[in-house]
């Protein structure tokens, strides 16, 4: 893949990650409020990001458009994001509701920690898919942790700033910017991982 194509793929990955992050969060908040089940937001963010990324990563790993990307690969990639984001919600609920730990209103540090661990968990699940297609796939676990943690930093900072100045626009844009941060970090590394000439057969 030429440098220009790598850059184009990286930009596309970043855009779809931001879209999935934003739509997943907005849809999750709405459905969670309607159904009185806040955990839905975690599931929809993970599913939104995972589904759209899956469409783009398939283009990167299938240069000849062969049908090597199986339904199991798709399910594993999306499930990784869903598991990671659900982890964020469950940990937050256990800390606040069960542990009765007082957390400040924004909880930025806690958010970063939870998202970083969730990113590592997401990366662990998705790496089992990637290992068939790329060399050095274990880097994906660390990169996913860094990307999700950094996105939480941006999300927490922007919402905190927006609350301070009562800027509704900033609140609405926070998920998109957080998604861009996630996409830039993860896509920038993934596009550089050397691909295998043929996918390995699942063991």
Could you characterize the architecture of this molecule?
The protein has about 200 residues and is mainly alpha-helical. Helix content is about 75%, strand content about 0%. It is built from six helices and no strands. The protein is globular. It starts with a helix and ends in a 13-residue tail after the last helix. Residues about 100-105 have low confidence and may be disordered.
Number of helices: 6
Would you count the extended β strands for me? Answer: 0
Distance between the termini: 28 Å
Instruction: Write the element-wise H/E pattern from the N-terminal end onward.
Output: HHHHHH
- Measured on Cα atoms, how large is the radius of gyration? 17 Å
Keywords:
mainly alpha, globular, 203 residues, 0% strand
Task: Explain briefly what this protein structure is.
This protein is mostly helical. The chain has helices spanning 3-35, 39-61, 71-98, 108-130, 139-165, 168-190.
Question: What's the layout of helices and strands?
Answer:
Blueprint: H1 3-35, H2 39-61, H3 71-98, H4 108-130, H5 139-165, H6 168-190
Helix pairs in contact: 1-2, 1-6, 2-3, 3-4, 4-5, 5-6
């Amino acid at each position: 893949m030429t440098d220009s194509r790598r850059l184009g793929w990286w930009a596309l990955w970043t855009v779809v990650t931001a879209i999935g992050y934003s739509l997943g969060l907005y849809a999750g908040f709405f459905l969670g409020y309607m159904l009185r089940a806040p955990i839905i937001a975690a599931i929809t963010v993970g599913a939104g990001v995972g589904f759209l990324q899956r469409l783009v990563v398939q283009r990167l790993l299938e240069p000849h458009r062969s049908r090597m990307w199986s339904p199991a690969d798709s399910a594993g990639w999306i499930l990784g994001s869903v598991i990671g984001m659900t982890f964020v919600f469950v940990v937050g609920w256990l800390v606040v509701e069960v542990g009765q730990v007082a957390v400040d209103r924004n909880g930025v540090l806690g958010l970063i920690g939870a998202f970083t661990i969730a990113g590592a968990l997401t990366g662990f699940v998705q790496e089992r898919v990637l290992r068939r297609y790329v060399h050095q796939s274990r880097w994906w676990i660390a990169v996913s942790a860094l990307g999700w943690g950094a996105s939480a930093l941006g999300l927490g900072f922007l919402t905190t700033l927006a609350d301070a100045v009562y800027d509704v626009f900033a609140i609405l844009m926070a998920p998109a910017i957080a998604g861009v941060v996630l996409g830039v970090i993860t896509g920038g590394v993934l596009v550089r991982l050397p691909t295998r000439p043929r996918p390995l057969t699942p063991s």
